[in-house]
Amino acid sequence: MQQRTSRKSHSGVVVSNKMDNTVVVRVDTTGRHPKYDKIIKRGRKFYAHDDSNQLAIGDKVTITECRPLSKTKCWRVVAS
User: Are 21 and 44 in contact (CB under 8 A)?
Assistant: First the structure.
């Protein structure tokens, strides 16, 4: 039997909860610019599955990878 690889996880903030059982989570990362050596902040939005449908905008959550649940949704909310 093969060992399952660890799944990716991110923490971010809920920016939209208008869909049913789905929230949009913004994950911000910081990094150094290769040429100018300045710290820059970048963000990315992920669609995540929310079974409870209780999350509000501004909540801090942790999301993890899962199987594809729809065309754009392949993350689920683990902790809020």
Answer: no
Note the pLDDT tens digit of each residue in 35-53: 999 999 999 999 999 999 9
| CATH number for the domain whose boundaries are 9-79 | 2.40.50.140
24 neighbors 45 (Cβ within 8 angstroms) = yes
Q: Which residues of 22-60 are buried (b: 16+ CB within 10 A; e: fewer)?
A: bbbbebeeeeeeeeeeeeeeeeeebbbbbeeeebeeebe
Query: Is this model's pTM higher than 0.70 or not?
Result: yes
Using H for helix, E for strand and C for coil, what is the string for the chain?
CCCCCCCCEEEEEEEECCCCCEEEEEEEEEEECCCCCCEEEEEEEEEEECCCCCCCCCCEEEEEECCCCCCCCCEEEEEC
